[in-house]
Amino acid sequence: MAxxxxxxxxxxxASSSVRALSSASxxxxxxxxxALLTTPMARVTRSESKYLVGAEQRRAASxxxxxxxxxxxxxxxxAMEEEMLRDESVFIMGEEVARYNGAYKITxxxxxxxxxxxxxxxPITESGFAGMAVGAALAGLxxxxxxxTWNFAMQAIDQIVNSxxxxxxxxGGNVPCPVTFRGPNGAAAGVGAQHSQDYCAWYGSIPGLKxxxxxxxxxCRGLLKAAIRDPNPVCFLENELLYGxxxxxxxxxxxxxxxxxxxxxxVEKEGSDITVVAHSKMVTHSxxxxxxxEKEEGIKVEVINLRSIRPLDIDTIIKSVKKTNxxxxxxxxxxxxxxxxxxxxxxxxxxxxxxxxxxxxxxTGADVPTPYSESIEHMAFPDTDLIAKVLKRHLYRQ
Amino acid sequence: xxxxxxxxxxxxxxxxxxxxISRSLITGPPPNVPTTxxxxxxxxxxxxxxxxxxxxxxxxxxxxGENKPLYVPGSQADRLARVGRMSSPLRRxxxxxxxxxxMGWFNAVAKTIPTYRVLDEEGHLVKGSHVPEITQExxxxxxxxxxxxxxxxxxxxxxxxxxxxxxxxxxxxxxxxIVGSSAAMLENDEMFGQYRESAALLHRxxxxxxxxxxxxxxxxxxxxxxxxxxxxxxxxxxxxxxxxSPLATQMPQAAGAAYALKVDEARQGDxxxxxxxxxxxxxxxxxxxxxxxxxxxxxxxxxxxxxGFAISTPxxxxxxxxxxxxxxxxxxxxxxxxxxxxxxxVLSAVREARKRAVEGxxxxxxxAMTYRVGHHSTSDDSSMYRKVEEVKxxxxxxxxxxxxxxFLASKSWWNESQEKELLxxxxxSVMKAFARAEKLPKPKLGEMFNDIWGVAKGDxxxxxxxxxxxELGRLLKKYGDVWEPWRKERKxxxxxxxxxxxxxxxxx
Lengths: 398, 508
Prior knowledge:
heterodimer, A: alpha/beta, Rossmann fold, 16% strand, B: alpha/beta, 2 domains, 5-stranded parallel β-sheet, disordered N terminus, oxidoreductase (chain A), Transketo_C/PFOR_II (chain A), Pyruvate dehydrogenase E1 component subunit beta (chain A)
């Protein structure tokens, strides 16, 4: 797990915007793998993020003792490669995963290493290859099924939910279905209503599925490896905008045996005044907001990175709320029947309710199909400033 | 088989003066079929089949001016190289094609797809037919299952009507297709059923006790532990995958299992058979599965039971092409249409299909033409959409059991007294298994909370599951003895719910 020192390194102010990254890419091997440059839906992010670490910072960090920087893309790629080396029954299938190295280059180089039988380009039929993955899992293999984005997995949702998620139970516990479905999830940038949706709540509502929404490179490595080894069907919901982002990782996190437990959240930043629960890219914004509040108002925010949507680690949240007496959830999905709604409901049903000093609150995406136009798309999702504003208001500092 | 099909070609000149060879595959009209056969009203007639016109490939592109490309930029050498590249068949996305100045429209790949059969409606060998290798023992085993399933169906159908089980599906009329295909498979093969294949499962060795236990969801239901509707069997020990209710989802899964067999060194020589109906072939999953299997490979027999109906929808409202078999060539699959009421033909065709699938590590499509004599399920009354007389006619004229029995009799493998004895023993064993299964208690109450997530060694069961379990246990502790409805209900379960009462109170 990332050490506290490592976190603060990520938090170091960086002037690098995406533009700076792209100009630096000519001189740095690492930046050549930037998601925003290699993805087919490449768009320039609007706000500068401290988490988009530039080439200079990376090199400096790499020279540090025992801590290196890797991108989320490298983390996912190495996790799959190691699991394929470890277990011959692991294979990858999906659209464009082999010769094209994946639409987002997550499976880069795997075809060359493992051959066509284990890295498979399939015809473009989500229900077909998702169903095949389920069938291969029922027959004893451990498929990793890549969806180009989770938006396209809607065509295969019957296979994921009704077959993958339920067969173990329906077969009397005799036939496990160890399949990992993975791909980018949630809003990207400038890709409109049909490509910008968060499916955490959809899959999170199904008993029998495990759902992971990782944030950092370490999350991705530890959790993807755990997902592939898990005897259950796992939906691994990545974020496109994080693919090219670098995170510091320790030696331990780079080791082949590094696993993170599915169903356990992580307190990314400890604090005493308010609990913020976030997942995926919203962890970035929450940490930035926490930093602003700490600097400007002296408010100590506790930021919890959910990591797993299902099973949900409500115990960690309860413990935190009992300490801070305030709860705000942050997510990039729609508000209705969402992850935040579920957490709030569970907290209100739990003993932590009596510790709350204010009604718990959700910060979510707007309740509209994601608009394309940049100016209004920007307003459809929470960002650092909005989270900081909500937290201040929540604590009556405004 | 080839002697069965007489291939007739005749060359004639059409009005444009172009020579066309029309080919037709003729089996001759089936004997003894009354003209009123299959009278379900149809709304749209099938289009007249226009098979692929005959083209002669032009061997030299530049031999005459007609086939010369109009304009290709570049030098002569470039031009020829490009013409060569562009003309290569795969460049155009086809396996084999040629240039033609004629517009060649077609809506069928063959004028007639023959239906392969060994026995006629009365069970006599068709002229020129080849009887598959079959021992007396094998033949009688097939016949035993074919005669057992109607009795099982009848008992369970009636028990649903009496409210003793919630649901049932019969396979009346399709015994030959289901048992014949199952008999062609080997022990280590994998089977994906749709839902009407209990006979295939029985033929693989599933016991009557297991079958009845599943339908009643009692404590001996090892396959589904009382969690699944009746007829949704699961028998991994027999290679029979769990039946899923949503239509055709088993098909991409079968493609996946076939792929797993293809890449597994230890499973070379094994094969998958996937059953589906004519209605399921309209689902996207059908096309997804055949597409995946044809491209990625893996030994799989796609066995279509074309029984004429998808619940109430007759085939004529289901598709306008030539059945399901016509779709096989579209995916490049070896395909055969077989008389589904002829157990010998099905056995023979599926054996050959299995051979082709295993040797080529690929998919093979078998369309078995049959007729669903029973209702779709217990939720259906088929007299609302088809004449009772029509159904009766099928049981008399083209009864798969009678046809196979006639074959057995012709071999002197079967006689009247054996028949009586067999039916009597079937009835006894079915009633015995039925009575036993109905009396057995329900599974442990705690089974409701097991197997939702597989728990790896050293991991703990998710809290959300343990909390629910503990809550039920707490309520049972409190009210299980004092509230009459619960006291009564508890008695139906093995251990009377005591197994969930070990809670630590966490769920309270």
